[in-house]
Amino acid sequence: MDGAPKRSVERLLDGLPQALRSLSDPPAAPGWNHAQMADLLGEAPRRPAAVLIGVREGVQPRLVLTVRTAHLQSHAGQVAFPGGRQDPEDVNAIDTALRESEEEIGLERALVQPLGFLDCFETISGYCVTPVVARINERAVLYPTPAEVAEVFEVPFAFFLEPANLKRYVMDYRGHRRPMVEFVHGGHRIWGATAAMLLNLLERMEDA
Question: Does some domain include residue 43?
Fold first, then answer.
């Protein structure tokens, strides 16, 4: 993104569905970053998971994010979208994302409007994640479930549209050099899979 979008955030969000895979066309494995993950993890099947990239409606639309609790086995203390692994009872990725969001941050399903999907993304922890993009009603009351989430916070969507707020760098991991991106807002470092999926969304919005 080589310049701040001239359209208002509200207009961008109104056109958000055009930047996404349709609800009738859910993505399938492998993830768009499969080649990179194959170098690190090999070709073993990835476990299915889903996250909710939720934008809360309002005068200033905001992206809903969480901080994972420090005692979790993977990605402890990191910023993440609400979500998790697919359960056998889940009908589809939307069902997984909504169930996990309700469990983690108390988000009522009735207050969520799924808009579409991003392509699947593979994580270093061995998951193939389906990102579900949705609008969240501004009346939704969100609160962390302490067993999984230490904090729920929101970032104005306009923050992510400003190119100066995106940082690119390279990280050495298991003998491989990996290109990375991150955002920092209000003391929260948004990086790793969360930042990569968010950047994918922003790039799709620019191209739509």
Answer: yes
Q: What is the pTM of this model?
A: 0.91
Task: Using the CB atoms, write b or e for 13-37: b if 16+ within 10 Å.
Answer: beebbebbbeeeebbeebbebbeeb
33-69: per-residue pLDDT in tens? 999 888 888 999 999 999 999 999 988 899 999 998 8
Which one, of 107, 108, 172, lies nearest residue 143 by Cα? 107
Q: Is residue 4 part of a domain?
A: no
Distance between CA atoms of 72 and 58, rounded to whole angstroms? Answer: 33
| 141 neighbors 107 (Cβ within 8 angstroms) | no
pLDDT digits (tens, 9 = 90+) for 99-119: 999 999 999 999 999 999 999
Tally of domains within the chain: 1
- Cis previous bond, 146, omega within 30: no
Collect all residues with Cβ–Cβ distance below 8 Å to 15 and sequence separation of at least 6. Answer: 205, 208
